[in-house]
Amino acid sequence: MKCDVLTIFPDIFDSYLNESIIKRARANNLLDVTLFNIRDFSSDPHRTVDDSPFGGGAGMVFKPEPIFRAMDFLREDGEPRRVILLTPQGRPFSQSIAEDYSKEQKRFVFICGRYEGIDERVKTLADEEISIGDYVLTGGELAALVIIDAVTRLIPGALGDERSVEDESFSWGLLDYPHYTRPREFRGLSVPQVLVSGDHKEIDNWRRKEALKKTVKVRPDLIAKVKLTELDRRILSEIQALSDEEA
Ligand code: 6GU
Fold this sequence. Notes:
The protein is an alpha/beta fold. It folds into two domains: about 1-150, SPOUT methyltransferase, trefoil knot domain (Alpha/beta knot); about 185-245, Trp Operon Repressor, Chain A. The chain contains nine helices and ten strands. It has helices at about 10-15, 20-25, 65-75, 95-105, 140-150, 165-170, 200-220, 220-225, 230-245, and strands at about 1-5, 30-35, 50, 60, 80-90, 105-110, 115-120, 130, 185, 190. A hairpin with a 2-residue loop joins strand 9 (about 185) and strand 10 (about 190). The protein is elongated, with a radius of gyration of 23 Å. The N and C termini lie far apart (about 50 Å). The chain binds 6-chloroguanine. 6-chloroguanine (6GU) binds near residues 86, 87, 90, 136 and 137. 6-chloroguanine binds near residues 87, 113, 131, 137 and 143.
């Protein structure tokens, strides 16, 4: 995946892109990120990128010219790219969008919004507007990193162990099941017996049940979207029966 990022704070990206799996993906040429400072595309000596809003109101608005000039520069090579504008008004990012992006061979451009907003005409440059959730950040930089991270780990070879992604498809759409490692006893808390039983079918069943339990409790909205097996439905009615008992 090749990503060009337009931002007025390119330094924000350095530490995150230089650690762990993302660092390794870049070293292995699975991910290529180029940062562009929008100020470098401003045409005035003060490198201005913002101005006050027409119609009045608080705060400043990103001017269109520097961002258009940056896009003109990027498009000189004629390569197709998917241009993503990051704002709180966008379509909510999700795992399924991450999967779509990871399958695309195109280059990506992330335009990071800042200030109170972006001149509406910048939207004509973008293929889509994306948000990472229902809260307001000071800028789109963290959103760009979130998307780059979520997509990179889906690129074949990016994770050390490909089973990590396969395991997620096992629990697709559900919250993850609980994990344990050594020691078996820790401050009076023990690892569930089934996990040390060596019975892999029982372990799978336990994990599915725990994932369903957790999801019903914390994110019941997700249950409606998941393809449930016959076994899942049985487990769910058991969970329901248990919570009816408690009530
Ligand atoms: Cl993409 N930008 C900003 N500024 N805030 C956000 C967001 C993006 N997504 C959620 N909140």
